[in-house]
């Protein structure tokens, strides 16, 4: 396999996953800024749905061999950390 | 870009999307065989979640340039047709 092309798709995949993870963080931040309570079931549902969508993208990328499983887990773990920080900031308001 | 390698990832992507679409059809068939009513909210929720997951995979593949948008739409449309047939068969039982 041509290593250069392999890297192009791999880079694209990682970039897109990071964009999508960041989109979730932004969405949650907007919800918090607009005072939608984290205890609200709708908030939890939106978050669950978005996290599920992202994890499906990651699984897909891993199955295609574009992203290592460990890297995929890292993206989700980082996002969860970010959401926890946001959540903490929000509840301290 | 090396056309051969491009095709490998593209083929893998299409193959994986078809596998995942077929998985949804099978899941729904199992639910119907076990007499879980299509009117049941849980059935609808499972179906919605699975369809959402697949559409996220397709969007991801399209964004990476692995799958053409039209092909992605076709996969979803074919699955919907298949589910409609299953649904019809079930309600005629």
From TrEMBL, chains A, B:
It holds the Pfam family DUF1507. It comes from the Bacteria. HAMAP family: UPF0358. Belongs to the UPF0358 family. This is UPF0358 protein SAMN04244570_2527. It comes from Sporosarcina newyorkensis. The lineage of its organism: Bacteria, Bacillati, Bacillota, Bacilli, Bacillales.
């Amino acid at each position: 396999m041509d290593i250069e092309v392999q890297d192009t798709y791999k880079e694209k995949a990682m970039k897109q996953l990071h964009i999508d993870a960041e989109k979730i963080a932004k969405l949650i931040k907007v919800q918090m800024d607009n005072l939608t309570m984290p205890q609200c079931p709708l908030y939890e549902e939106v978050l669950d749905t978005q996290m599920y969508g992202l994890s499906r993208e990651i699984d897909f990328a891993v199955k295609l061999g574009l992203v290592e499983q460990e890297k995929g887990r890292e993206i989700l773990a980082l996002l969860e950390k970010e959401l926890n920080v946001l959540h903490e900031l929000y509840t301290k308001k």
